[in-house]
Fold:
Amino acid sequence: MNQKLPNATLALVLAILAYVACCLSSGLGGIVLSVVALVLANKDRKTYLLQPENYSNYGQVKTARTLAIVALILSGLILLSALGALLFFGSIEGIENWAEEIQRQQMEGVQ
Structure:
């Protein structure tokens, strides 16, 4: 009798949410969710490898693991770029001032 791995669906849902959250939370939400999804997927992976004949949804675990890794990498890159922008411009206000200056220069170039 084939069973389903206990955390496969949860790991997949968290991996999908991590993929979405990586862009919506400057990378932090994606990192947290993808790490949790990876832990759950790896736990189910170990369970599956002990008795592969007893489980039927290992493909879902592999998909969750892959998505979680992609989300973790993207989240890390987004977080690093956000931190780099803050270091370069000094603050959020510095970024806004730079953007206003670029817009002003473009408007002068059009006229």
Remarks:
- The two ends are 75 Å apart (CA to CA).
- The mean pLDDT is 92.
- The chain has four helices and no strands.
